[in-house]
Design goal:
Belongs to the diphosphomevalonate decarboxylase family. The chain is an alpha+beta fold. The chain has two domains: 179 residues, Ribosomal Protein S5, domain 2; 152 residues, Alpha-Beta Plaits. Helices cover 36% and strands 24% of the residues. The chain has a five-stranded mixed sheet with strand order 1-6-9-7-8. β7 and β8 form a beta hairpin. α1 runs parallel beside α2 and α5 runs antiparallel to α6. It is globular, with a radius of gyration of 20 Å. It binds (3R)-3-hydroxy-3-methyl-5-(phosphonooxy)pentanoic acid (PMV). The site of (3R)-3-hydroxy-3-methyl-5-(phosphonooxy)pentanoic acid has 14 residues, from α2 and α4.
């Protein structure tokens, strides 16, 4: 038997990916940019084994058996890795050997906290280790499991280039700067609700592509400038600029979700209270010290600099005390 175990972290998008131009290959309609967390508190851990004695391919997610061969995205990742390994002649065991894969997230699954990004990045990396495939080739494969997974294979700030080729070979995740570049950049996750989201990102995106007029406007006229400006802000350690672009992009993404017909409402009243709280906090400070961003769910990711962490946490506890109905739990992280 051959066994490998790996962990992969969650990434949080500052400029969101929303909308595909190719459903199966998972090719996006815009570039996106994220920061990968560097914390054991929010990651996926996967163990993959291959053995002559396994009769079937089996997968467990958080301890529960889930479909394997019926899962087209999973099978696509497995087949691509097997083809690469066969082409390179690096296989340590016969390709026909069945797989047992066990994956676990130590944070809420499918609650809009990038669980599929960490999950597929981890799955692809672990299988690559098992099959002896090199790391550089993996982002295009992880992308076909879950789009945002291609960004979790790198640390620091990462850009997913939408690419122009029809086969997706140039739709890759590549590092912008490593985590060391901005060491006092911090992230606080506010868990508002850890249940599964009502509309998956796959169906929310599909419906947006079909029905939202705002979506094309954002992809063509807003995202290219934002990507360039946020990279500039990252390179120059310009936190207020990064924060404003991030908040504007989150707001526009959720406006598109509401412009979708029927609409997708991912944020709830507590999420909106967090938005108001962040703007009030910045107004009081006289400068932008805190930024929010929300994925396809009600939970908030806050970005801030290390020097402001204590003041922000005190203000959060004050505005969202744990015994109140609209309480939030928080997790601290650094890239
Ligand atoms: O990769 P998916 O299908 O989980 O989609 C992720 C979409 C967002 O999280 C909302 C945005 C992003 O870029 O991560």
């Amino acid at each position: 038997m051959f066994v490998e175990t790996c962990i992969a972290p969650v990434n949080i998008a500052l400029i969101k990916y929303w909308g595909k131009r190719h459903e199966e290959l998972i090719l996006p309609i815009n570039d996106s940019l994220s920061v990968t967390l560097n914390t054991d508190e929010m990651c996926a851990k996967t163990t993959a084994a291959a053995s002559a004695s396994f009769k079937d391919n089996v997968m467990w997610l958080n301890g529960e058996k889930v479909p394997f061969e019926q899962n087209a995205r999973l099978m696509r990742c497995v087949k691509e890795l097997q083809q690469l390994a066969t082409a390179k002649g690096k296989l340590k065991f016969p390709i026909e050997w069945k797989l047992h894969i066990a994956s676990r997230n130590n944070f809420p699954t499918a609650a809009g906290l990038a669980s599929s990004a960490a999950g597929y990045a981890c799955l692809v990396y672990t299988l690559a280790q098992l099959y002896g495939v090199e790391k550089e080739e993996l982002t295009t494969i992880a992308r076909q499991g879950s789009g945002s997974a291609c960004r979790s294979l790198h640390g620091g700030f990462v850009r997913w280039h939408m690419g122009t080729r029809n086969d997706g070979s140039d739709s890759i995740g590549s590092p912008v700067v490593s985590a060391e570049h901005w060491q006092d950049f911090h992230i606080i996750i506010l868990v508002v609700n850890d249940s599964r989201k009502k509309t998956s990102s796959t169906s929310g995106m599909k419906r947006a592509v079909e029905t939202s007029d705002l979506l094309t406007h954002r992809a063509q006229h807003c995202v290219p400038q934002r990507i360039a400006a946020v990279i500039d802000a990252i390179k120059n350690h310009d936190f207020p600029k990064l924060a404003e672009i991030t908040m504007r992009d989150s707001n526009q993404f959720h406006a598109i979700a509401l412009d979708t017909f029927p609409p997708c409402a991912y944020m709830n009243d507590v999420s909106h209270a967090i938005v108001d709280f962040v703007h009030a906090f910045n107004k009081e400070a006289g400068e932008i010290k805190l930024a929010y961003t929300f994925d396809a769910g009600p939970n908030a990711c806050l970005f801030l600099l290390e020097k402001d962490v204590s003041a922000a946490l005190a203000a959060i506890q004050n505005s969202f005390p744990n015994d109140a109905g609209d309480s939030v739990e928080y997790v601290k992280g650094i890239p």
